[in-house]
Design brief:
Strands 1, 2, 3, 4, 6, 7, 8, 9, 10, 11 and 12 form an 11-stranded mixed beta sheet that branches. A two-stranded antiparallel ribbon has the order 5-13. The chain is of the alpha/beta class and about 300 residues long. α1 crosses α4. β8 and β9 form a beta hairpin. It has one domain: Spore Coat Polysaccharide Biosynthesis Protein SpsA, Chain A, CATH 3.90.550.10. Helices cover about 25% and strands about 25% of the residues.
Amino acid sequence: MKPTLIILAAGMGSRYGSLKQVDAVGPNGETIIDYSVFDALRAGFGKVVFVIRKDIEKDFLEVFGKRFDGKVPYEIVFQELDMLPEGIACPPDRVKPWGTAHAVWVCRNAVKEPFAVINADDFYGANAFSVLAKALANGSLQEGEYFMLGYHLKNTLSDQGSVSRGVCSVDTQSFLSDVVERTHIERIDNVVKFKNENGEMVTVDENSLVSMNFWGFTPNFFGHIDSMLSEFLSGSLANPKAEFYIPTVVNHLIKNGKATCKVLPTTSQWFGVTYPGDKPVVMSSLKLLVEKGEYPSPLT
């Protein structure tokens, strides 16, 4: 059975200032999503599930409907603030999305096979998709055998401002032992630092492995999210900024012996668009990959 790719494209893009999911960055107007779908299909993924908001559906389909209809097996799933477990009502003043784990949870009825999860605005590279597709298509894969693509922190920073990353601890067999979401990471006076809970800037090793939200899961992950989401909401429903992250779920399952998560190395180069100033860097990087013959232009 071919694995499915879930692309998280419901983010507001507030720091970027526009719908970066549909922004043209390739030599022939391709978006980062176009490259991700291209890489996924040639790596062996069988279907794509896009997670978007209803209010961007028109813009999204205007761009991608024409490109994918009849060519790519895909499905659209909506992530809305009021999509919560039965009996739980969304606070009327809630504006911020519930987070990446919630975005995966809304796909529970659309995905029945092993699956990968990526961000819409991150370029992960062909090798990364190939490595994960192979792991997910393994015939002896057991429920609870999860995967994460690991990238070095120093290669995932933006010159335009701070970023958020899941900083990982890995054991000697490359299994994830812990991942902590760190916010406001940036290079200051040539030293990489993050802002802790007390608002203090703390140094972090620039060679640390980080999660760029490229995960591989078996279908039982949905059930784990389901039970943890209700618990999260019971304590955080009134907090307008509380978010339910994928690393939170993975950490809990690892520490309770319910899952393992192998960190897979990749030779792929990562780059992404967080700020408007990142766009020229992404465009020149993609142009170079096309010139090297790693991608056709236009994508077919």
